[in-house]
Amino acid sequence: MRSSQVYERGLASLIVALGIGFAAVPTAFAEPDDGAAAPGPAAGPMPVPVATTDDHGVPAVTACSTFANALDSASTFYGDFADSIEGVDRPDYGDPAISTTNTSGRTALRDAAASAMNAAGIPGLSPDIANPIRSWSFGATKLLLKMGLHRGGQSLNDTATQLNNDATNAQMACAAAGTHA
After folding, report:
1. Which residue in 71, 93, 98, 110 is deepest, having the highest Cβ count within 10 Å?
2. Contact, 129 vs 174, CB < 8 A?
């Protein structure tokens, strides 16, 4: 299948999914239908206590620990998938073993990418740590999309190599901050 056909099918699927999503959105009316007076202004948002600390290492420790857990999970499940397609340029995604490890690998990557992105957004975290973690999260998302589109071995290898480089950069940033990932 040519890549343009894959993109066309993906775009068509996206349009259908958005159409279904928008069809389920409830409608809103500008005027109340019962003739009642409009209610007064709503109460403002409740203040939320913000945890503060004088130790700038706390966000780094939290983010790096969260990233380390995400990295462990993703590497385990993606590793199972990589083992199942090792040495094959065009994996047979119809094979039950490959299909199962593909699904579990994508799920782990999706969860890890979300966890890493949350870690990168921790308030007070240095951009020196947040940026490589965020880059890893984007790379993990790219890899899981390629797995979902049943891409070939070299495409997956190239993306996994970049993901490993991003992980190393994040780990080095965590180490420079005095913690580990």
Report:
1. 71
2. yes
Rounded distance, CA 37 to CA 39, Å? 6
In a domain, 130, yes or no: yes
Report for 10-14, 45-49, 88-92, 116-120: range of highest mean pLDDT:
116-120
pLDDT tens per residue, range 39-81: 555 555 555 444 444 455 789 999 999 999 999 999 999 999 9
Find the angle CA(141)-CA(101)-CA(76) to the nearest 5 degrees: 70
d(CA 145, CA 155): 11
Domain ranges, residue 100: 56-177
Say if 61 falls within a structural domain: yes
Could you give the number of structural domains in the chain?
1
